[in-house]
Every structure is written in structure tokens, then in C-alpha cells.
Specification:
Length: 179
């Protein structure tokens, strides 16, 4: 796998993380560099570790995991989105560390399957994981920044929109699996 192909793989794997990061930025109470780096680190960390897990696990287990991954992602993203909407309606803040970790795990499941593919290609998993993690860090941090800029303008409706987007993302993943 060429470095250019690896960058494209990393960018494609980071798109769900970007969407979740924008939602996080929309509803964040603090919208600074710290929030951007923390979100980028969690999302990038999960995106770097999941291909390694997929690489180590191999193809036999990946077939079983890939079957349950879409419904699992749907449930986690829907739960987080519904919680964001509930928190926005009740006025309770909402963007907790727990929701960040669950979001990072939910949007990184596809990176596990990518790791299995990287094993078949005999790719350098250390280099691949580092690039995937770094790209996801940057994309996620930028997503929080973008969401933060939009959130300042939309204040009250931002968390509602962010929760709705996460639910839609979960439904999209589930429908793609069902069809």
C-alpha cells in the first residue's frame, strides 16, 4: 500500500469521526483548543488502535464482528444522540467524557475491518495505525472547531441538531447493513 493510498484510507475512516466531532463542537460548553485536542486524541487513539486489533485478530473473527458491528454502532450513536437531545431539552450540559469515549468507539468499528484488510495486504501496521490515528486526530480536532464556530451562532438549537445528526448517522449505518 502506497503512502497516498494510506492517506486516502485514513481520510475515509475519519469521516464518521469528523461528523461526530462537529456534533461535539456544536454542543460543547467550552470550545477551545483543549476540547479540540481531547476529542482529536480520543477519536485518533481509537482509530489507531482498532486497525491494530483487526490486524492481530485476522479474518476468521472479523466475519463475526462485522456482522454485529453495524447494529452495535447504530445503538451507540442513537443512544448518544438521544442523550444529547435530552440534555439540550433539560438544560443539563451534556457533552460528558463518557459520551466522548462511546462516540470514539462507535465511529472506529470500521477501522477494525480495515485492519483485517491491512493484514491481508501485509501492510506495515505500525505505520498504518500511526497515519490513521494522526489523520483522524487532525480531522476530529477541526470538526470540533467547526462545530464550535457554528454552535456559538446557533446556541440552543446546536445540541438538538448534533444529537439528530448522530441518530441519522446511526440509522444510515444500520440501513446500509440491512440493504
Amino acid at each position: 500500500m502506497t503512502f497516498c493510498e494510506l492517506i486516502f484510507l485514513a481520510l475515509s475512516l475519519s469521516m464518521d469521526a469528523f461528523a461526530a466531532a462537529v456534533c461535539r463542537g456544536l454542543s460543547a460548553e467550552r470550545r477551545g483548543i483543549g476540547e479540540m485536542c481531547m476529542t482529536g486524541a480520543w477519536f485518533g487513539g481509537f482509530q489507531a488502535l482498532m486497525p491494530v486489533a483487526g490486524y492481530i485478530t485476522g479474518a476468521g473473527l472479523a466475519d463475526k464482528v462485522s456482522f454485529i458491528a453495524p447494529p452495535l454502532c447504530f445503538m451507540m450513536l442513537t443512544f448518544i444522540g438521544a442523550n444529547m437531545i435530552y440534555e439540550a431539552k433539560s438544560g443539563n450540559g451534556g457533552n460528558t467524557a463518557g459520551s466522548l469515549i462511546v462516540s470514539a468507539a462507535a465511529v472506529s468499528v470500521d477501522a477494525f475491518a480495515a485492519g483485517v484488510t491491512l493484514a491481508f495486504l501485509r501492510a506495515d501496521i505500525v505505520k498504518s495505525a500511526a497515519v490513521i490515528g494522526a489523520v483522524t486526530f487532525a480531522v476530529s480536532a477541526a470538526g470540533v472547531g467547526l462545530g464550535g464556530m457554528l454552535g456559538e451562532k446557533a446556541q440552543g438549537k446546536a445540541a438538538l441538531a448534533g444529537g439528530g445528526v448522530l441518530i441519522i448517522l446511526g440509522v444510515k449505518i444500520l440501513l446500509g447493513w440491512l440493504m
